[in-house]
Design a protein that fits this description.
globular, single chain, five-stranded parallel beta sheet, 23% strand, 546 residues, six-stranded antiparallel beta sheet
């Protein structure tokens, strides 16, 4: 929580009063001087018409403690009052009480989100030992005495900004978790590093009888009587499926679990999850959902596989709702990070943290946008428009986005019947197809051609199209993206539209599943021709607006 006047709470723990006074002078200079400066700036603006500069530094509210016990009491009180500290500067040597490392470890158990800076004049402390006492390492930093005042200010600003952004994200996530409880599901965020749930909806108690604060991964394993693996893992053993989900890039998790609830009753929970990665693309956790499907399993005396698929489609819908809401939070975080980056100097210690936050927020927004397109949850308005004109409008954007090499050529038929759909989604569809085609070019050499036109498709042609079933033969407006790349074999073509399937080294996003979702929403179909020796042509057929 940030104080009412936008100040961040800072805790300083040191047994030397002179050091505490130094922190006070560095982080909380005389308010009067600040007020006088502010009045001078305002007067200068009125007299000379100069705009007032945006404030580039944060303001802080300091709590100064002379020993570890006093600091622990302050942290406990802050948590109880829901007004936690953002950053703590802790001296290592504070006789005769506990040393700073021990205090840091005890503080971490009270407040796991605080950013901690260990301050020491000695070199006999091994950072690895400190991390073991007060993990995690990304919330633990070191500062050697004697320090420069600017170091203190930069540490406080950078870590305070990092903490504040995380606080916004945590509170937003908690808000959305509470909203999802009404849907009868239990969203969760599992941290593989700690093997604990960072977030778990309180509705887990309705599903299992166990409260969120006592429900752990170990407890789930203990009460699980049977697991039915689904999706790509259905032919694997449980250990193989877990290994695949934890290590294979882009893997997802789908399973039905038969558990024994706290009251002794058996229940079936559907569980779907996606990977959570850090900035280095390492899998560090999972975001997932539990949903009670006991009634459906009991009623499904036949057609169980179809029933399970239907319920998992519903779960995908719920997951999309949740991720779209999370995308709004990511947008807010991105806005705050961008705003901070515009006012913080290039050499500031806070910039690397903010840049990582910016990248993570952008990735989160991309993921949620792709989920929305895949699931059909994007609600932008449909309208009538000319496909060729729409493509011509974004051709320069496509050239700018192409980082893979090759030439993008256009052969657009100007006089086309109108189609009915979403220009924004067509832009996304075209971008995905063109960039995939550019990436397939060998060593970035060759051409990618974007064509539009009008064609007559008979039933034989439509039957060879994906989503071409139940289409009537007739005229269609087509979009064709062809390349001179490496092409695909039959196995690759058969898996092309599977979520997270990719032949590339880095599998991110939803791939051609996004394209398929857009095509489905537009009542269109897709025809693909590919030869490893010639390249690939992807043609999307849109119905003509009547």
């Amino acid at each position: 929580m940030i104080t009412p006047d936008n100040r961040l709470r800072i805790l300083v723990v040191d047994d030397e009063q002179d050091i505490l006074n130094s922190f006070q002078q560095i982080l909380c200079p005389q308010k009067e001087a600040g007020a006088n400066s502010s009045r001078m700036d305002e007067l200068e603006s009125r007299l000379f018409g100069k705009s007032q500069p945006q404030e580039a530094s944060l303001r802080f509210d300091l709590s100064l403690c002379r020993n570890g016990e006093e600091a622990l009491s302050a942290v406990q009180t802050a948590i109880e009052e829901q007004n936690p500290f953002a950053v703590a500067f802790i001296d290592v040597r504070m006789p005769p009480g506990p040393d700073g490392v021990t205090v840091a470890g005890r503080i971490r158990r009270i407040d796991p989100f605080m950013e901690i800076v260990i301050v020491t004049a000695y070199s006999d402390m091994d950072p690895k030992d400190i991390v073991r006492v007060a993990p995690p390492s990304d919330k633990l930093f070191y500062l050697r005495k004697p320090f420069h005042p600017e170091e203190i200010e930069r540490f406080a600003s950078a870590l305070g900004t990092k903490w504040r952004t995380g606080e916004v994200s945590r509170k937003s996530a908690q808000f959305y978790l509470q909203a999802e409880e009404k849907a009868g599901i239990a969203p969760y965020l599992l941290n593989y590093i700690t093997n604990q749930y960072d977030f778990l909806s309180s509705s887990i108690e309705e599903l299992t009888g166990y409260r969120a604060n006592e429900f752990t991964p170990e407890l789930l394993d203990l009460i699980t009587e049977e697991i039915v693996l689904l999706g790509e893992a259905k032919n694997l053993t449980l250990e193989e499926a877990k290994q695949r989900f934890h290590s294979e890039d882009g893997a997802g998790w789908r399973a039905d679990c038969r558990i024994r609830a706290q009251n002794g009753e058996f229940r079936w929970l559907a569980n779907v999850a996606v990977q959570v990665k850090d900035s280095l693309n390492n899998v560090i956790g999972e975001f997932g959902l539990f949903h009670d499907i006991t009634q459906s399993r009991e009623n499904a005396t036949d057609g169980l596989q179809k029933s399970s698929a239907m319920y998992h489609d519903n779960l995908n819908f719920i997951a999309s709702k949740f991720l779209l809401n999370f995308g709004k939070t990511a947008s807010e975080i991105l806005h705050e990070a961008n705003a901070a980056l515009t006012i913080i100097p290039l050499n500031s210690l806070s910039r690397p943290f903010l840049e990582k936050i910016e990248i993570a927020a952008m990735n989160a927004m991309t993921l949620t946008e792709e989920w929305g397109l895949y699931s059909g949850e994007n609600t932008d308005l449909f309208q009538s428009f000319n496909l060729s004109s729409q493509i011509a409008d974004i051709s320069q954007f496509l050239d700018f986005c192409n980082l893979y090499g090759g030439n993008i050529e256009y052969a657009l038929e100007k006089k086309l019947p109108l189609i009915y759909g979403s220009p924004m989604q067509i832009n996304q569809l075209l971008t995905n197809l063109v960039l995939n085609a550019c990436e397939s070019l060998v060593e970035g050499r060759g051409d990618v051609t974007v064509r539009t036109g009008l064609m007559y498709a008979d039933l034989e042609y439509l039957s060879a199209c994906r989503l071409g079933e139940n289409k009537s033969e007739g005229f269609f407006v087509f979009l064709d993206v062809s390349d001179q790349g490496c092409g695909m074999d039959d196995m690759t073509k058969s898996r092309l539209f599977e979520p997270y399937f990719s032949m590339k080294d880095a599998c991110r996003g939803m791939g051609l599943c996004v394209v398929e979702g857009i095509v489905r929403r537009h009542q269109a179909c897709i025809h693909i021709e590919s030869d490893p020796a010639k390249g690939t042509s992807v043609r999307v057929l849109f119905p003509v607006k009547k």
